[in-house]
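Structure tokens please, single chain.
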Amino acid sequence: MTIVIFYIHQKERRPLMKRLSDCLLLFVCSLSLTLFCQDLPQAVTGFLVTLICLSAVLLFPRKSVYIPAFLCWTISALLTPWQLIFLPPVLYTVCTCKSPLLFALCLLPAAFHVPAASPRPAAFLLCFCLAALLLARRTQEGLRLEKEVHAARDTGMERNLLLEEKNRALLENQDYQVYTATLKERNRIAREIHDNVGHMLSRSILMTGAIRTVSQDRALARPLEELEDTLHTAMTSIRRSVHDLRDDSVSLKEAMEDLIRDFQFCSASLSYEAGLSIPREVKYSVIMICKEALSNVIRHSDASRVTVSFREHPGFYRLCIQDNGTSAPLSLTDGMGLSNMKERIRCLGGVIQFNTEQGFSIHASVPKAAAKDMTERKSI
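Here you go.
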């Protein structure tokens, strides 16, 4: 019977081991009744028949198996009375099948043979049968409680995972809101500098130039020239700062969402999986490539669906644009649009591929290290 456990699913291993240990205990009790046995060959035959039937029930716990198995045991017990000493493990196993008809069927040999048996073995058999029923009830109740505990534990773990996922989503959303607010604030500061400080510096430069033109005092010529140069330097610095602020204030996700939202030619979808800190050159290159690709769909394709995806991997950024158009594809060598895409990706140290199978697709990848170096060189 122990071989049975190797065929049972892992989830059923513990209940099987519990029932198996109970059956072994009841078999030991039943074997003690062989002390009263007057026909040992019958007892051996009954032991083997009981062992085979119970093994079949444990190995294949299906109605198509345990009904014939218990029916065979009942017929054998009717023919060999001393097989009844193994009634306790049979009753225990029948209780696990939860079938009153089988329970009555297994008691049928006892109704025929026990009245004619000796009082002492009959009393022991009755006690062992009652113990088997109580043990079966206790085991079923324990397994039920254990199953409820496992279900409660699994439910708790699932809820904890859901809470962790929601907390992670809330934190990511909070970080994105902070990032978006920061970009908006940078854009506002850049606009204020351009509208206020820039205009005042432009006015000061014009006034200084006018004073230099009308002034006849040679002693003021040199100071006015240095003042004008200083104002020009300040204006250049202000412009650079304003451009840097505006460049950094661009959110790639929002820009791509705006492009998809404004695209009305056919159905379009966006899949965006990237962090917040993306190099400026990568952002502008991705935006320009998306604009050109969507424009090509409108001008050259009969597509009904366009998918755009941008993903950040550990070592590189990946951009994929795919449509399902069936019209004649663009030439992969001619055209300013595709050439500009190649040049932008090449400057970032990446590679770009065009494919005309099942529509037109663009696959571009940019190494993070190369993109970071390019951005740092341009910021110097």
